Amino acid sequence: MKVIEVAAGLIHHEGRYLIARRKPGVHLAGFWEFPGGKRETGESLEECLQRELFEELSIRVDVPVPYQIVRHDYLEKTVELHFFHCVIEEGQATAVDCAEIRWVLPEELPQFKFPPADQVIIDALQRDTIKDLR
């Protein structure tokens, strides 16, 4: 089965994470996600994430810091999601190539419908937030 590598940004600002809703007509349309996209031939995952965030949200981020890798099998393909922590260095996040965006607290993430592969990350972010509060 084909494996698609995806880089996703955990963009954090003032205690909230930036999430984006997928556009109609695409795989998993209407679901919320951590923004990012597919790696192109010849680019690193970090370069992929920086390119995708600029294309989708019109922002430039600092050097992405690896967080976690999640592999998930769908009927038609397998995705390997590489999640990175990053911070906006330049620009204001705008829904350029997605349906909408929101800044949400970690405890609000379960209120949004995410693809199954993202649940591991949502759980981890909530655990990390609880640890940070202690």
Rg (CA only) = 14 Å
What is the number of E strands? 9
- The outline comes out as globular
Distance between the termini: 43 Å
Tell me the fraction of residues in β-strands, as a range.
Answer: 35-45%
The helix/strand series, from N terminus to C terminus, equals: EEEEHEEEEEH
Q: In this structure, how is the largest beta sheet organized?
A: 7 strands, mixed
Q: For the residues shown, what is the average pLDDT?
A: 92
Helix content: 10-25%
Oligomer: single chain
Task: Determine and state the CATH class.
Answer: Alpha Beta
Number of domains: 1
Task: Explain what the structure shows.
The structure is a single chain. The chain is α+β, with helices and mostly antiparallel strands. It has one domain: Nucleoside Triphosphate Pyrophosphohydrolase (Alpha-Beta Complex). The protein is 21% helix and 37% strand. It contains 2 helices and 9 strands. Strands 1, 2, 3, 4, 6, 7 and 9 form a 7-stranded mixed sheet that branches. A two-stranded antiparallel sheet has the order 5-8. A hairpin with a 4-residue loop joins β6 and β7. It is globular and about 40 Å long. The relative contact order is 0.25. The model has no long low-confidence stretch (mean pLDDT 92).
List the SSEs and their pairings.
Layout: E1 3-13, E2 16-21, E3 32-33, E4 36-38, H1 45-57, E5 60-61, E6 65-73, E7 78-86, E8 88-90, E9 100-104, H2 119-133
Parallel strand pairs: 1-7
Antiparallel strand pairs: 1-2, 1-4, 2-3, 2-9, 5-8, 6-7
